[in-house]
């Protein structure tokens, strides 16, 4: 099963670190799995199934069938070798960046600024309201000769 997990990682064009981050598992745990120090657990299968819902669990666990469910084949060749992971597509070096709409100074942006500033003020009020009053109970000063002095305020 660890070989199939490694094959899955390679089909997604990921490094061990990025695959571990993608699955939400520790990179050290994944490294232990690949080196043979540990065996795959249900946590790995669950993480893979949650992130790649089209994975064929029979293939992952037993090596039976295709890697992904409903994988199209044309003349015995796979139509798509890897699953597209949401958020993983990055523009190429020569791709043009999408243009960002410019905000014009006007009523809409002023309203948004006012709403944002009022929300910040509300958050500050909540923080101040929920914070209990604190008082100093003792101050200790430690010296380099391994001694200390304690100061307690008079009540």
Structure overview:
The structure is a single chain. With 155 residues, this protein is mainly alpha-helical. The chain has a domain at 2-70: Orthogonal Bundle (434 Repressor (Amino-terminal Domain)), CATH 1.10.260.40. 43% of the residues lie in helices and 8% in strands. The protein has helices spanning 2-11, 16-23, 27-35, 42-51, 57-62, 107-130; strands spanning 73-74, 77-78, 139-142, 148-151. The chain has a two-stranded antiparallel ribbon with strand order 1-2. The chain has a two-stranded antiparallel ribbon with strand order 3-4. A hairpin with a 5-residue loop joins strand 3 (139-142) and strand 4. The N and C termini lie far apart (69 Å).
